[in-house]
Amino acid sequence: MESMTVQLDQGSGGRATHELVQDLFIQSFRNEYLLEMNDSALVNVGNGQIAMTTDSYVVDPVIFPGGNIGSLAVHGTVNDLAMRGARPLYMTAGFILEEGLSLETLGEIVSSMAAAAREANVFIVAGDTKVVPRGKADKIFINTSGVGVVPPGVRVGGQYAEPGDAVLINGTIGDHGMAVLCKREGLAFENEIRSDSASLNGLVEKMLEVCPQIHVLRDPTRGGVATTLNEIAEQSHVGIRLEEEALPVREDVAGACEILGLDPLYVANEGKVLVFVPARCMKSVLRVMRDHPLGRNACKIGETVSNDAGRVFLRTRIGGHRLLDMLRGEQLPRIC
């Protein structure tokens, strides 16, 4: 870390975040669970395993097309558990409220949070509330923790990708980040861009039923698809090849990114999952994904290879190859 103060890009989910986590937090809290660097930790309890995760939500604006900070907090927590193949069960929720926040707004956020929990079939079983003076926060911040049970025989994690895996995604990329940014900046397009925020545990359960041998599940949130794939490539020591022609991007999202000078591959998602499966399982997993409401636009976007370990390349539409690195800098702050 070159700077002696915390910088905004250290919260981007990209290279600066990884350096902060590795150089400070991992060095201080070092243990076998943290070293895996997955979305949630698997710990042994009795004869089984549970998944544990925690997250904080500071999105601005707190209400955006397709959701709000409350539903987002549930979706993000549930998804972090589901990415280890776990069945989410329980959550906690801590609220930091700024003096002056409208009770109507708070009520809308809490109501959405409750509805999202019911839809995901999880219980919010404990919580905490703090109020800080005006100007000491930004309306509302939410911290969550989640616990889920891992079914026997399921072994999913960022370190398990193997050469020859097919890389799948359940739909279009960049929707959440662009929905939040357009709302924040007051940008209007012919069709409103809506967040893809959703709980993926139901979809994951269906995929694991037809292919318990799924190697990796990861939701590409901060830093987008490109940064998430770099994380997996490093964890599993494989190379990843993407096909630009196969990447699903909505026209309005692509247009907004072009106007703003952004790359959809680095824009956050909140209802998408990257799936690494053995090639023999690809067709059955894609079929299940496309039968689910959250996977109708599922497709293969690439594959893993044994060479170029730890690196991600994009084969462009004109046949060239472009190295995709982790996100550098903070192109979209306060996105989740």
From TrEMBL:
Gene3D superfamilies: PurM-like C-terminal domain (3.90.650.10), PurM-like, N-terminal domain (3.30.1330.10). Residues 162-313 form the PurM-like C-terminal domain. Residues 38-150 form the PurM-like N-terminal domain. Transmembrane segments: none annotated. One of its GO terms (biological process) is protein maturation. InterPro entries: HypE, PurM-like_C_dom, PurM-like_C_sf, PurM-like_N, PurM-like_N_sf. Belongs to the HypE family. This is Hydrogenase expression/formation protein HypE. It comes from Desulforhabdus amnigena. The lineage of its organism: Bacteria, Pseudomonadati, Thermodesulfobacteriota, Syntrophobacteria, Syntrophobacterales.
